[in-house]
Amino acid sequence: MALNDTLVAFSDGNPIDVLRSYPVLDKPATRALAERLFPGAHVEEIGDELLVDALNPPADVVFVGCFSGLDLVCSWGLTPRRPSELDPVVLAATERRHVYLHAAHSDAGWCSYGVWRDGSRVRAVSVGADPGSSEDEGEPLGFEPADPDEISCSSMQGLFGFACDDHDRMDDVDPELIPVVAYRISTAS
User: Fold this and answer.
1) Cβ neighbours of residue 8 under 8 Å, at least 6 residues apart?
2) pLDDT at residue 2 above 60?
């Protein structure tokens, strides 16, 4: 799996539990969420996709998956370099209790992730070559390794249960079986 990804999850509980159940997509809810995330923009449905192919979207595309207990969004336009800078519009886009963010770009050697519970940020990490984008707030999470070279894979695995390269586990979520909907986002000129 590529190590270039952007993913925001809104969850009532642990997103891994929902993803492991291979939930049924609520397609009408995906449009409603895309419109809330991009207020005033033109939102055009352009097809269905699988989560594995949606993690590194084109700049003008957002992939959305809405399920019972979980909403997923892949969009570089929503992902800041530092989790603490996540737009309040994004944090308030659903009424779910928890928000999880993961973004990584292997070519730039950068990874960030954040966790919010009941509206409060409990963890925010951004590591990479640019010290200006570094961040380390909150108590470390159980998956955080001592080796910073492993942080991208371990954080994706720890937050969402996805296998990363050769880190396969029997209980991994399979993003090749999770459906999402693609929307082209454009603003009025």
Assistant:
1) 72, 73, 74, 75, 78, 79, 86, 90, 99, 100, 101
2) no
173 alpha carbon, distance to own chain's centre: 14
| Amino acid letter for position 189 | S
Look at residue 171 and tell me whether its pLDDT is greater than 90. Answer: no
Lowest average pLDDT, out of 64-73, 89-98, 127-136, goes to 127-136
State the average pLDDT for the chain: 90
Of the candidates 52, 56, 54, 73, the one whose C-alpha atom is nearest the C-alpha of residue 4 is 56
Tokens of 16: 């891994």
3-state DSSP assignment of residue 147 = coil
Farthest-apart Cα atoms in the chain, separation: 49
Of 38 and 189, the one with more pLDDT: 38
Say what the pLDDT of residue 59 is.
92
- Across 2-119, the runs of DSSP E, i.e. the strands, are 5-11, 42-50, 61-67, 70-74, 98-105, 110-117
Rounded CA gap, 140 and 174, in Å? 26
99 close to 87: Cβ distance less than 8 angstroms: no
In sequence order, what are the beta bridge partners of 60?
Answer: none
Pairing of strands 135-138, 179-186: unpaired
